[in-house]
Write a structure and sequence with these properties.
There is one protein chain. The protein has 611 residues and is an alpha/beta fold. The chain has 3 domains: 9-178 and 321-344, ABC transporter type 1, transmembrane domain (ABC transporter transmembrane region fold, Up-down Bundle), CATH 1.20.1560; 182-295; 361-442 and 516-607, Rossmann fold. Helices cover 62% and strands 9% of the residues. It has helices spanning 16-27, 36-69, 79-125, 129-134, 139-180, 182-229, 231-236, 240-293, 298-312, 318-340, 400-407, 430-436, 451-455, 464-473, 477-482, 500-514, 530-544, 579-585, 588-607; strands at 361-369, 376-384, 389-393, 415-420, 423-424, 437-440, 518-522, 548-552, 564-569, 572-577. A 6-stranded mixed sheet has the order 6-7-8-3-9-10, with helices on both faces. A hairpin with a 6-residue loop joins β1 (361-369) and β2.
């Protein structure tokens, strides 16, 4: 199966409704069942706040009408005052209930975000090695972050802003038509329609301007960083004035686009204000004529204006919301595209845990080629007895690392099969397989955490005594004991606070702590100097005791004592046997050996002091 680069995973043109359906579907998952009560209460509070938002202007208008008519004059609590109290209470509830809703509904949105983000993170981890090798750095993390953030924004904005505003508009239109005049309802709906269309059209135009501005900003920053970073080259060629002119041109281009963007924002704001003001004017004129004709009372004008103002207020950010909703729909779609992506390598439905006892490995007629390459393995067969020490040798690209990756089942062979103790790797779970294999790679990459965390990564449940026992076997014990914080010492980004030999010994200790039946040494000492290599080699010999060991060798001297050496070339095993036997055949292995020993001899002569 061909694994697409992550950035090439298609985001199909989907309707907004599909993104909304997938987003709200998260709220109905079984894991969210405990929040159903909060969801229902949040919906009820939202609707109630909009009801009070519509009622408050009605009560204000009624109070004004009664005050104008002089009703209840001299009473302890005149009728108009009672209606004003109703108005104040309703207005407080219209604005206060959403705050109460937000206070307890935040837990729901955050839990939904966590649920989807963790699921996407775990799903990304389950993808094949090929998937991770071809993705762009940081792309997965950005997709997960943006998708989860877009879910929260869209849930909040659609459920508690746009949706309720539509409900309020319908309620207000119904009240205006029922209590006052159907003409007012038409004016309100028409104003919202014109406002929305104008905002969407102008925002789409502004988005194009913003993209141009962002491109100019990126170019400006790139020129600045590039020039300041390469200051020696600039000075060497006397190009200071030229670079300043180039920066000036980039700044002018950015400024021009920035001005256009801000002018478009001014146009959007002014246009929105014009539409809203025109709507209010139309409503005021309709109500005014109705008052003159006796169909309405003076206080009703106030009620209508307040009602419309309440509706218009949340629409002020419609342009921003439209842009964010469009981007959010894309981010959510990408997030769910990741979740829909099927892994190349999956456990079979009948997969069972690997039961490794002897550690015997068999490759039977295995053929495999990497994506986009012709080289790989071509009909490779061999048997490694349990407990044997086997070396893999051959020129670069011969297929040594490919054997290890197939053994880890990072890939499946195109044909043939691989067995451990008679069990086909495709019939066992990947987790159990990889707990059977202990790896010491060419470069041990560590987490930016403590020595304890990195050493126990193979067995997080290991006790401190077990961790230190493994460290001592890897010749790392005295180093740890010399540190002021011991196992709690942080190793830095990618373990940069440790030397190369110390990092390799951490890798060895990790493999010892795992105590696997099979140990894999992938050129574990090739990047070390000779003295450090001898120290680490002793730790590796300790780790290899009592277990099947496969060593990919850069320096052939490290596998000279192997029980069996497999020599590969162009994806085939061309020679196999012990070190002495292979030298006697005077084939590829002997040629590689002579080349290395002659090179090491020349280096030794160069280092020797002159007599």
């Amino acid at each position: 199966m061909t694994t697409p680069q992550f950035d090439e995973i298609s985001v199909k043109p989907q309707s907004f409704t599909r993104a909304l359906a997938r987003m709200t579907g998260v709220l109905w998952r079984p894991e969210m069942k405990r929040w159903r009560g909060r969801m229902a209460l949040a919906l009820a509070l939202t609707v109630a706040s909009k009801v009070f938002s519509v009622l408050s202007p009605v009560w204000m208008g009624a109070g004004i009408n009664r005050a104008a008519a002089g009703e209840g004059a001299g009473a302890a609590l005149p009728a108009f005052a009672l209606f004003f109290l109703f108005f104040a209470a309703a207005r407080f509830l219209a604005n206060g209930l959403p705050q109460i809703r937000d206070a307890f509904f935040t837990r729901v949105t955050q839990d939904a975000n966590r649920l989807v983000a963790v699921e996407a993170f775990a799903h990304a981890q389950s993808q094949s090695l090929q998937f991770h090798l071809t993705r762009r750095a940081g792309a997965l993390n950005r997709i997960i972050e943006r998708g989860a953030g877009a879910m929260e924004f869209m849930l909040r904005f659609l459920a508690f802003n746009i949706g309720p505003t539509i409900v309020e508009l319908l309620l207000a239109a119904s009240v205006m038509a029922g209590l006052y005049s159907w003409k007012l309802a038409v004016a309100a709906v028409a104003t919202i329609g014109v406002y929305s269309v104008f905002t969407v059209v102008v925002t789409e135009w502004r988005n194009a301007l913003r993209r141009q501005m962002n491109e100019a900003d990126t170019e400006l920053r790139a020129i600045a960083v590039d020039t300041l970073t390469n200051f020696e080259t600039v000075k060497a060629f006397g190009a200071e004035r030229r670079e300043a002119d180039r920066y000036d041109r980039a700044m002018q281009a950015y400024n021009d686009r920035y001005v256009k963007t801000m002018q478009s924002l001014a146009l959007l704001n002014a246009g929105q204000e014009f539409v809203m003001t025109a709507g209010l004017l139309a409503a005021a004129l309709i109500a005014g004529y109705a008052v003159v004709s006796g169909a309405m009372k003076p206080g009703d004008i106030t009620a209508v204006i307040l009602m419309l103002t309440n509706i218009y207020r949340p629409l002020n950010i419609l342009g921003f919301a439209w842009r964010e909703i469009k981007q959010g729909a894309v981010d959510i779609e990408k997030l769910f595209d990741l979740l829909d992506l099927k892994a190349d390598i999956e456990d079979a439905p009948h997969a069972r845990p690997l039961a490794a006892t002897r550690g015997e490995i068999r490759f039977e007629h295995v053929t495999f080629a990497h994506e986009g390459r012709q080289s790989g393995l071509d009909d490779v067969s061999f048997r490694i007895p349990g407990g044997a020490f086997v070396g893999l040798a051959g020129p670069s690209g011969a297929g040594k690392s490919t054997i290890l990756r197939l053994l880890y089942r990072f890939y499946d062979p195109a044909s043939g099969r691989i067995l451990i103790d008679g069990q086909d790797l495709r019939d066992v779970t990947q987790e159990s397989l990889r707990r059977t294999l202990g790896l010491v790679p060419q470069e041990v990459v560590l987490f930016n955490d403590t020595l304890r965390f990195n050493l126990s990564y193979a067995r997080p449940e290991a006790s401190e005594e077990e961790i230190m026992a493994a460290a001592r076997r890897a010749q790392l014990g005295s180093f740890i004991e010399s540190l002021p914080k011991g196992l709690d010492t942080r190793v830095g980004e990618r373990g940069l606070k440790l030397s190369g030999g110390e990092k390799q010994r951490v890798g060895v200790a990790r493999a010892i702590l795992l105590d696997p039946p099979i140990l894999i040494l992938d050129e574990a000492t090739s990047s070390l100097d000779s003295e450090t290599e001898r120290e680490v080699q002793g730790a590796l010999s300790e780790a290899a005791k009592g277990r099947t060991t496969i060593a990919v060798a850069h320096r052939l001297s490290t596998i000279a004592g192997a029980d069996l050496i497999l020599v590969l070339d162009n994806g085939r095993i061309v020679e196999q046997g012990r070190h002495g036997e292979l030298l006697a055949r005077n084939g590829l292995y002997a040629a590689l050996w002579r080349r290395q020993t002659e090179g090491e001899g020349a280096e030794a002569r160069e280092r020797a002091p002159a007599e």
